[in-house]
Description:
The complex is a heterodimer. In chain A, 37% of the residues lie in helices and 15% in strands. By secondary structure, chain A is an alpha+beta fold. A five-stranded parallel β-sheet of chain A has the order 6-2-1-10-18. In chain A, helix 3 packs parallel to helix 13, helix 5 crosses helix 13 and helix 16 packs antiparallel against helix 17. The two termini of chain A are 42 Å apart. Chain B is an alpha+beta fold. In chain B, the strands form two sheets. A five-stranded mixed β-sheet of chain B has the order 2-1-5-3-4. In chain B, helix 2 runs antiparallel to helix 6, helix 3 runs antiparallel to helix 5 and helix 6 packs across helix 8. In chain B, 53% of the residues are buried. The interface between A and B is large, with 77 and 78 residues.
Amino acid sequence: MTLDSKIPPGPIDRKWEYAKSHYKLVNPANKRKYDVIVAGAGLAGAAAAATMAELGYNVKCFVYHDSPRRAHSIAAQGGINAAKNYQNDGDSIYRLFYDTVKGGDYRSREANVYRLAQLSVNIIDQAVAQGVPFAREYGGVLENRSFGGVQVSRTFYARGQTGQQLLLGAFQALERQIALGRVTMFSRHEMLDVVLVEGQAKGIITRNLVTGAIDAHAGDAVVLATGGYANVFYLSTNAKASNTTAIWRAYRRGACFANPCYTQIHPTCIPQSGDFQSKLTLMSESLRNDGRIWVPKTGGDSRRPDQIPENERDYYLERKYPSFGNLAPRDIASRGAKEVCDEGRGAGPGGRGVYLDFADAFKRLGRKVIEERYGNLFEMYQDITAEDPYVVPMRIYPAPHYTMGGLWVDYNLMSNIPGLYIGGEANFSDHGANRLGASALMQGLADGYFVLPVTVGDYLGGQLGKKVTTDRPEFKQTKAEVEQRIGKLVGAKGTRSVDSFHRELGNIMWEYCGMARSADGLKKAITDIRVLRDQYWRDVRVLGTNDEPNQALERAGRVADFFDLGELMCIDALHREESAGGHFRVEYQTSEGEAQRNDDKFLYVGAWQFTGDNSEPALQKEPLVYEEAKLATRSYK
Amino acid sequence: MMDLTLQVWRQASRTAEGKFVTYEAKDISPDASFLEMLDVVNERLTERNEQPIHFEHDCREGICGSCGMMINGVAHGPAAGTATCQLHMRNFNHGDQIRVEPWRARAFPIIKDLIVDRSPLDMIIQAGGYISVNTGSAIEANTLLIPKAVQDRSMDAAACIQCGACVAQCPNGAAQLFTSAKVSHLGLLPQGQPERYERVVRMVEIMEEHFGSCTMYGECEAVCPKEISIDFIARMNRDYIAAKFRNRKSEANG
C-alpha cells in the first residue's frame, strides 16, 4: 500500500486556494440528501458538525457526555495562536508556519501546517463573531500574549479559560443547528466501531450509555474527532473519560495509525500528591511568561525556597537556553525538569518538582497585574495543594498532556479508508513530533470550521446514489462483533478492578515510554504490557450488566484498547532510532543532552497498519519533504 | 488520614426506588478530592462485589461541568466557588458524617445513583443561546471595538459551566442564574445586539417550560462554582421586560 498525501500542486501559499478551487461541490439541493456522521463534539467535532449543517448536510453527532459542551477541549487554558500580527512585532503567516514546523522538530507535513497558519486568522474572526470574549486592551482591540517556543505575541486568550470559551462558541453554533433540525444529537452514546461497506466508511456502531442498547447508524461519510490518547499513561492532564477507542477501532478496521510514539509531556503541571491521585492538573504554560523556573544548585537542599539565596539557585532553562529561557518549547522544558530531578535537585515531597517562582514578577508588575493575568490559575493551585503561590513559589512537574500521533490522514484529512475523516487531536498531521502551546485549539478549529466541511463535500460529491442502510450485512456483522466483545467484559468475574489494571499499564508507559526512552526499556515494556493484557482478560472484574448505566463496563472497553495502543506506541518508539521532539531516545542525544534527529533514516511519517491480533503491525512510510522550512537542528539557545 | 461515614443515595434507574446506603470511608487523604475519595470507596465496593457508586465526572479540574452532587445538603459542598471535583477532603474533619445526594430538581430526573439528566439546560441554549453567524461570514476581528469593561463583564457571565448547581440548590428549582448568564454573556456584546431581545424572550420561555420560578432566594449564587453574580438575573429580567415592550412594534419599523 502507498500513503498518498494528496498535497495540492503549486507554491505553498497557493496550495489551499488551489485545492478549494478544485474540490467537487455538491449541489445545494442535494446536500440534504447526505448524512454525515460526526463522532465527538470538541472543538474539531462541534465546529465540523455545525458548519456542515450550515452548509445543508444532515449531520448526526455522537458524544458520550450528557452534553456536547463537556468535551475536553473545554479545559484548554492558555490560548489560541493566530498570525494576525496585531502587535506589529514581525509576525506573519510564514512565521507561524515556520515556528510550528520547527517546534514540531521537522516531523510534520509542510503543506498542512501552512494551511493551518493561513486559517488561523479566520478562526479569530469567526470566534469573535460568535461572541467569544477574548481579552481586550483598554482601547477595545484584541490583546495578545506570548507563549512557549516563539518570540512574537500572537496568542489570543480569554482569561485562563480560552478552550472553554472557544468550545462554547462551537457548541452554541452546534446547538443552533440542532434547534434548526439539521443536526441530530446523540448524547450519552459511545462510538464502539466503524462500519465499512465495500472498503468505504459508511457508518458506526454505538452503545447507549443509559440503556446499553447497541445501535448501528449509517451515513455517507464518517468524521472522527474523538481526541487524543494521553490517558494511556493513566495519570495525565486529560479528562477521565478521554480514550482511544474510536480511533483504535478504526485502526483495527484498516486505518493507519501514524507516529503513535509522539506524545507531549507538558512541563507545568501540579506534582502528584498520593496514590489516590486520579489525574494530573495542568496549569497554563502562559505562567512561564512571568514565572521563573529553578531548583537548588545542590541536591538534598531541604531549606524553604525563600531561604535559598539567589546564588544558590539554578535557573536551569535560562542558563541553558539564554534566548528562549523559560519560554523554551514544552518538550525541552519537560526534559529539563526531569534531568534536574533525576540529579536529586527536585523540590517538594519525593523530589519530583521544580519551583515556578513569581517573586520577580510581583516586584516588576505588582500583585494586581499578576492577579489579573493568572488569578484563576493561582486559585486553582491553592485549592489543590493548600499552598498560597502568592507567598510560596509553585511546584510543578511534567505530565502527559497531548498526543501528536493519531490516525494518518491526507491533506484532505481523510484516512486511508475512503470516507473516513479524522479531525483535531485524533489525527496526526500538523504538530510533528512536538506541539507548540496554543496550537491545539487552532488546529481543532481549523479542521472543524474550515477544512473538513469542504473536503468532506469533495468526497460526497462522488457518492450520489450510493447510500447504504443499516440493513446491509456489514452493519449486522460489525454490531455482532461489538456485542461479542462487550459480552466478554460485562460480568467478568476476575479479582481486580479495571482501574487497578489501568494504573499498572500507566506505570509501564510512564517508566519506559514517557519522557526518556531506550531500546531495552521499550522491549521490556512490550513484554510487560503483553503479560498484563493477558492478565486483564483473565482477571478483570466488571460488575453489573450491559442493560444499565455501567461505568465500569465503559472503562473496561477503553482500557482494553489502551493496552493494544500502548504496545503499538512502544513498537513505534523502538523502531524510531532517533530523538525528535517529544520522542526522546536516550541513545540518540547530542553531547549537550539535546534531542538528535536522524533525517537520513527517519524523515518520514511512520504509519502502522493492523494485520491481525497475533501478528506484528506493518509499517507504512510517508516521506516528508521540506521545501520551505529548510531542515535544521532545532536550537532555542 | 481521615475516616468518614458516607450516606449515599443509591438508585438503580430512573424508575427504581432509591435509598440512602451507609458506607465507611476509612484512611482518606486530606489531599484527595471528593471524587477521588469516592474512587477509593468504589474500589473497595468492587472488591466486595458491590456495584460502585455511579457519579458523573470528567475533567476533574472544575471546568467541564459534568460533576456535581449535594453534599450535606449543599450543591458542590462546603467550599465557596468550588466544583465537587475541586473540593478537597481537607475541607472535612476526621469522623465526619457526609450525606451525598444527586441534584434535587424536578427538571433533572435521576438516571442512576448520583447521575441526573440535565438536558433541559441544553434546550435553553437551543432556544437562542447563540449568535446566528455561519462559518465564513465573520468580519475582521478588530473591526469591532469592545470596551474592556464590557468584555470583562461578558466574560464573568460566560464563565458558567452548566453544572446545574443553581437549579439543584434553588428551593423552586429555577434556572434563572444559568439562563441569565448566557443571556448576559451574549447580550452585553455588540455582536449579540441584533438578536438581543428576541433571544431573551425565547430562552426565558423555554426555561419556564422546564423549570420553576425565581423568587430571589439567592441560593444559586451562593453555590455557583464559578461565582456567577445574581445581578445577571436582574439584567435578564430588565431585557425581558424591554423585549416585551419592543416587540409590540417590529424592529424594522423602529
